[in-house]
Write a structure and sequence with these properties.
heterodimer, A: about 375 residues, mainly alpha, globular, B: about 325 residues, 2 domains, flat, membrane (chain B), DUF2157 (chain B), transmembrane helix (chain B), DUF2157 domain-containing protein (chain B)
Chain lengths: ~375, ~325
């Protein structure tokens, strides 16, 4: 079922864990060396930037190769007639990509190299496009989503791919919502609860699977579903989201059961934060932070409290003080929590962090430009070239 | 997961029974770190304060309350610098530990408030008159001073942005393409100059071991402005004689840099920019030979893309052997 060598996948896990324990001085250097020898993994997994570079150039190469293929075939069959068999060509190309992908994995042991990623997405994308083009035209999106779903799932499972997992989740949720939307009269009431129910089911199923040892290779996929189901759960009950969709789909200016959705909008983010801290669940905590921001935005959309600059200043001050107090408390010592960073001294992390700091801080000077003091001719970011 | 690994290791006899117990108790009692979460909240706080207060002045510029707001912002600015000055760690040419978790963010807030104040004073009282150069020169020197004195990379980014706008170039990621008119040869040359200066500064700080960790920030601004300016020199000004050697030189420099410093980010960025230049050249040369679009052109172009990308992929797969980088743990 797995495209990658499962023993090596296990061994990479062990090696990662060993590096971590070695850094914490829990095992000796000789032991660490011996264990690395004992559990070899010969995957080709490059540095993150090399992966991006490989993916970038592999994508251009594939695009050009396909164009080349089309031109050759198009000239051979003579122009217009080939339009009807576009879908067929997609299938051939997809199969071609599939064989290249498998040989890169089997012979060159690529794993998360950028090349295997791009090949996988091309294989799945063209397979779905080809299938959809070959099937008879129907004025309803549901069958097309149903055609796509199995390929997304197979790709996600066989190649342990997180992006395909995400797409498969979105695809299944969309199918459910589209079906419920067909129920006359009740659709309006059922849609939000379909989203809520679907997300909850996915969340608890995935939590259960994550504990099963024989499914350990897919823990990354489960993690993605866990996070995205928390997001779709919140969106399914968020007032702004519901109101906008109701207006879009049913032309309703006022949503029924507004009180329920308002309670949901304001309480779920706090619930996430609370549960995230209580269960030491980092994913839930981050989603909670994001949902709090979205809840504030939702509230501001419908209730005017104060002008935006005041709100931003006050919120900024509040957040700063909040973090200050939290750090002070943590330094005094709260059992189970710490302010000390977890040891992630991987070079990739350090480089990426420096990048983010440079980009965002450098950009922090541009807001001044919005003030357009003196026509933006002096000061920070966007001064023109006229002096 | 770690329990299964522990089991596996102790049954194979690779770790002792006591070690296994130690590790287990370590994993069980490991505290939950809130480091990045709280840092993000601090950072968001600074961003929102900067946005809100900057906007507030702008909104109230002619009303009675603005004196209060200006006073408030000045007070925040002074308080930030007073705090950071008092709790600073002694100056060193090496990277220093922050005095406290808020230290970096208060310093950043102080710098941003300084920008707002300076902008206000110029708008209201025209303290620099029409000498706009001075209005960017002062924050630039101030930020460079702050960056080196307090060892702060955020202030360094602000200083580089100010240096660029003093020279008349926008370097922030969102504006680098939209706010610059690269058809202007003066701007292109300024961009090249700025890029070279920044790369030289990066090189200097590493060679002389003076704030070595600033090199990345210098180089990151430098590489993008240098490449974008030279590419526009090539494509818009069409001064091939100058910009083609410059581009080849720059790409080679960054690949060499990657070899010496094992900095793969700069190598990949340089390869992508270099590839854009190469593609442009190939298209131009092909065009100058034919001046019309031929039927066979599509073969030529697709084959060019296929072979060139394949070559770069091979290079990226084997760069360690090609550049003779010794195999070190990445």
């Amino acid at each position: 079922m797995l495209a990658y060598n499962p023993h090596w996948l296990d061994n990479t896990q062990i090696q990662e864990q060993i590096k971590n324990w070695f850094k914490k001085n829990l095992i000796t250097q000789e032991q660490s060396f011996l264990i690395q020898q004992h559990y070899p993994a010969s995957f080709y997994t490059p540095n993150a930037f090399i992966r991006i570079g490989l993916g970038f150039f592999a994508a251009i190469l594939l695009g050009a190769a396909q164009l080349f293929f089309w031109v050759v075939v198009g000239l051979a069959t003579g122009g217009d007639e080939m339009f009807g068999i576009v879908g067929f060509f997609y299938l051939i190309q997809s199969m071609g990509c599939f064989f290249i992908l498998e040989s890169f994995i089997k012979r060159r042991h690529h794993y998360a190299s950028g090349i295997d990623d791009i090949l996988l997405y091309t294989t799945v994308g063209e397979m779905i496009a080809g299938m959809c083009l070959l099937s008879p035209y129907i004025d309803d999106p549901i069958p097309y989503f149903c055609i796509g779903l199995p390929f997304l799932v197979i790709g996600a499972v066989r190649y342990i791919d997180r992006i395909l997992t995400l797409l498969a989740y979105g695809c299944l949720l969309t199918i459910m919502l589209l079906i419920v939307n067909k129920i006359p009269g009740l659709a309006l009431y059922l849609l939000p609860f379909t989203g809520i129910g679907f997300s909850l089911t996915a969340y608890f199923l995935v939590r259960k699977y994550q504990k099963l040892h024989h499914l350990r290779y897919w823990s990354g996929n489960f993690q993605i579903v866990e996070i995205v189901s928390l997001i779709t759960f919140y969106l399914s009950g968020n007032f702004l989201f519901i109101q906008e969709s109701a207006e879009e789909l049913f032309g309703l200016p006022v949503v029924p059961m507004g009180w329920f959705f308002w309670t949901f909008t304001l309480s779920v983010p706090l619930g996430y934060m609370y549960l995230g801290l209580k269960n030491k669940d980092r994913g839930m905590l981050w989603i909670g932070l994001g949902c709090v921001a979205f809840a504030v935005f939702t509230f501001r959309t419908y209730f005017y409290v104060m002008p935006l600059p005041y709100a931003a200043s006050l919120a900024g001050g509040f957040l700063f003080v909040l973090a200050y107090v939290a750090i002070q408390y943590l330094k005094k010592g709260i059992p189970g929590f710490t302010y000390e960073p977890e040891d992630t001294n991987k070079p990739v992390f350090l480089e990426a962090e420096a990048l983010v700091v440079a980009q965002t801080f450098g950009h922090a000077q541009t807001p001044e430009n919005d003030l357009s003091f003196g026509g933006g001719k002096f000061g920070g970011g966007g001064a023109g070239g006229d002096f | 997961m770690h329990k299964h690994i522990l089991n596996e290791l102790s049954t194979k006899g690779l770790i002792s029974e006591t070690q296994s117990k130690q590790i287990e108790s370590y994993e069980a009692s490991k505290p939950f770190s809130l480091h990045w979460e709280l840092k993000t909240v601090l950072y968001l706080g600074v961003i929102l304060l900067n946005l809100g207060l900057g906007w507030l002045i702008y909104d109230n510029i002619d009303s009675i309350g603005h004196g209060v707001i200006i006073g408030g912002i000045a007070a925040i600015c002074i308080a930030c610098f007073a705090y950071t000055y008092r709790s600073r760690v002694p100056f060193s040419w090496q990277q220093t530990e922050s005095a406290s978790p808020y230290y970096d963010y208060l310093l950043l807030l102080g710098c941003l408030m300084f920008v707002i104040l300076e902008g206000y004073l110029q708008y209201q009282y025209e303290i620099f008159g029409t000498r706009y150069g001075l209005a960017t020169f002062i924050p630039m020197t101030f930020f460079f001073g702050v960056a080196y004195f307090f060892d702060h990379r955020g202030a360094l980014s602000l200083a580089i942005t100010a240096l660029a706008s003093w020279l008349g170039v926008a370097v922030t990621p969102a504006d680098i393409l939209s706010s610059n008119d690269f058809g202007d040869s003066k701007l292109v040359w300024t961009g090249v100059l700025l890029g070279v200066i920044l790369c030289a500064l990066a090189f200097f700080s590493e060679q002389q071991n003076r704030k070595k960790h600033f090199a990345f920030t210098y180089l990151n601004f430098g590489i993008h402005i240098l490449f974008i300016a030279s590419l526009s020199g090539l494509m818009i000004l069409e001064t091939w004689v100058v910009f083609l050697p410059l581009l080849i030189l720059t790409t080679t420099f960054f690949i060499w840099y990657a070899r010496n410093r094992a900095s793969l980010y700069f190598m990949v960025v340089a390869l992508i920019y270099g590839y854009i230049a190469l593609t442009y050249l190939v298209f131009q040369i092909r065009w100058s030979y034919t001046y019309t679009i031929h039927e066979g052109d599509i073969y030529f172009y697709t084959l060019y893309f296929m072979s060139s990308c394949a070559a770069i992929i091979v290079f990226l797969l084997k760069y360690k052997t090609i550049l003779r980088i010794k195999n070190t743990e990445q």
